[in-house]
Write a structure and sequence with these properties.
Length: 213
Amino acid sequence: MAQAVTNGHSHGQHGQHGQHDPHDGGHHDLEGMKVMGFWMFLITDVILFGTLFATYVVLRGNTSGGPTPEELFKLPIIIAETFILLTSSFTSGIAVLEMNKGNKKGLIGWLAVTALLGAAFISLEVYEFVHLVHEGATISTSAFLSAFFTLVGTHGLHVSLGLVWMIALMIQLRKRGITPVTKRKVNVISLYWHFLDVVWIFVLTVVYLMGVM
């Protein structure tokens, strides 16, 4: 009788331990699905920017007698924007390294540096747009400027959304620390940030450098 009770207790323990596996597997599957969802979002963004770049290339010569790229673009501002965004991509990579070390303070600190650099980039871009409008170069001036403001503005909007996302993540990290969920979110925002960096390199080349040459 005692042996039966012992065996039953043992089986009960095994049953209790076994109950955790489906839950953990389900959680892992959910995280995997969320990462897959982000990749789908990124693919649609690649299509979006590809379309905007193609439109810009077709329309960049249609200035309608208005200002041309050579007359409008100020390379010092563009170089500063590029340097800031490239640096922010580097700091976001350091944030991921700190996360992998389990250093919560370092992770939040480097994310904060990345966010500050992103805010500086947006500030310069807004300054550039305001300067162009004061020069009489608005989105309705010509097909070239319509394509320019749409392409560069869409990238700027993506950076702004990334900043809001990053700030919200820093608040979550401060409250919850480094967990499997916050790890996934940090990896995703870092990947998103690198993607925006790559898009900017294309903007720099196709829009600005080719525009002033």
